[in-house]
């Protein structure tokens, strides 16, 4: 029985089969496991399988400059491949079983909430061509993730109830293939506000009859967006330059929506549902800086409403 695991491809091939069978998101494409495992093979290609231990992987992971998510995407199929090796009796145990590596990271860009003001929103919309404007206006007034915007279909819109069903997303890694939403809470039905409905009505003339059924199309190709990142290159960066607005990522349209709703005093439970958060606590934590405070002394509103001591 061969004992050099790194030079064997059958465990990776088995891994590919497992991922394709189970339908995992990024790994549903046959080449993905190989792509993720290549950095590991390059580093450990000389080692015998029996020599590999958790310390080796930890030391190697510490040298990587990519994000924790990327490292997890590398280690996850490796862990599964080692499980295959263990079941094939090439190793006695899996050194990565129930182990996860996580390095200290600076705050992610998505955690940097930097919403657009009403004036900035108006300037951006004014700088957009007519075939690009509906998407951005809808983004500002729906709170959808960029990946959810590009996956939206006309069949998701309930015109009578003025609602929209969010069930899928298309990330850059998906290469145009719709996936399930980021979380279970991400699959949701949201209320469509007047400006969002206005944007959809504008978009009808541009894509309602397109065979893909997608609401928003790439204006350069007339076809559905292949991923969320293309929006930045195709229309977003140019619009902000023309508008003279300080650059922020398209994802900030989502934060803009949430901050507008929260600062206006909309119920946090409703905002949380609109955003697809797992709980109101998440919404309150992320947007605590936009929760309005009363002009009166804190606690006096409740005292005025519920204090019955004056009747005795």
Write the layout of secondary structure elements.
Blueprint: H1 10-22, H2 32-44, H3 54-63, H4 68-87, H5 118-127, H6 133-142, H7 146-149, E1 157-158, E2 163-166, E3 168-169, E4 179-180, E5 188-191, H8 194-207, E6 217-218, E7 223-224, H9 230-243, H10 252-263, H11 268-275, H12 280-286, H13 300-306
Antiparallel strand pairs: 1-2, 2-5, 3-4, 6-7
3D structure, described in words:
With 312 residues, this protein is mainly alpha-helical. The protein has 2 domains: 78 residues; 178 residues, hpI Integrase, Chain A (Orthogonal Bundle). Helices cover 46% and strands 6% of the residues. It is built from 13 helices and 7 strands. A 3-stranded antiparallel sheet has the order 1-2-5. Strand 1 and strand 2 form a beta hairpin. Helix 1 packs across helix 4 and helix 5 packs across helix 9. The longest helix is centred in the first third of the chain and has 20 residues. The chain is globular and about 65 Å long.
Question: What distinguishing features does this structure have?
Answer:
mainly alpha; two-stranded antiparallel ribbon; 46% helix; single chain; 312 residues; globular; hpI Integrase, Chain A
Give a quick precis of the structure:
This protein is mainly α and 312 residues long.
Uncertain ranges: 1-31
Please tally the helical runs, counting DSSP H or I stretches of 4 or more residues: 13
What is the name of the CATH architecture of the largest domain? Orthogonal Bundle
Kindly name the structural category: mainly alpha
DSSP strand tally: 7
If you consult CATH, what is the topology of the largest domain? hpI Integrase, Chain A
């Amino acid at each position: 029985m061969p004992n050099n695991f790194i030079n064997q491809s059958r465990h990776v091939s088995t891994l590919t089969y497992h991922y394709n069978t189970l339908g995992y998101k990024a790994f549903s494409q046959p080449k993905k496991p190989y792509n993720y495992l290549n950095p590991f093979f390059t580093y450990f290609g000389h080692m015998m399988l029996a020599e590999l231990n958790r310390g080796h992987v930890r030391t190697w992971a510490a040298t990587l400059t990519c994000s924790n998510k990327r490292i997890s995407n590398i280690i996850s199929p490796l862990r599964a491949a080692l499980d295959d090796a263990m079941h094939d009796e090439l190793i006695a145990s899996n050194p990565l079983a129930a182990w996860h590596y996580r390095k200290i990271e600076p705050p992610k860009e998505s955690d940097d909430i930097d919403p657009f003001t009403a004036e900035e929103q108006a300037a951006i919309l004014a700088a957009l061509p007519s075939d690009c404007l509906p998407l951005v206006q809808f983004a500002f007034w729906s709170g959808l993730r960029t990946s959810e915007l590009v996956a939206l279909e006309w069949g998701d819109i309930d015109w009578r109830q003025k609602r929209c069903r969010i069930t899928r997303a298309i990330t850059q890694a998906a290469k145009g293939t719709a996936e399930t939403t980021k979380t279970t809470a991400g699959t949701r039905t949201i209320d469509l506000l007047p400006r969002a409905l206005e944007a959809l009505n504008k978009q009808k003339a541009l894509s309602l009859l397109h065979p893909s059924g997608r609401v928003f199309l790439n204006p350069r190709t007339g076809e559905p967006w292949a991923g969320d990142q293309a929006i930045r290159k195709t229309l977003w960066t140019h619009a902000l330059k023309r508008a003279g607005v300080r650059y922020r990522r398209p994802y900030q349209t989502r934060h803009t929506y949430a901050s507008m709703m929260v600062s206006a005093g909309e119920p946090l439970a409703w905002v949380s549902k609109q955003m697809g958060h797992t709980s109101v606590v998440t919404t309150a934590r992320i947007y605590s800086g936009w929760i309005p405070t009363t002009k009166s002394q804190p606690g006096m509103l409740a005292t005025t409403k519920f204090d019955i001591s004056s009747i005795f």
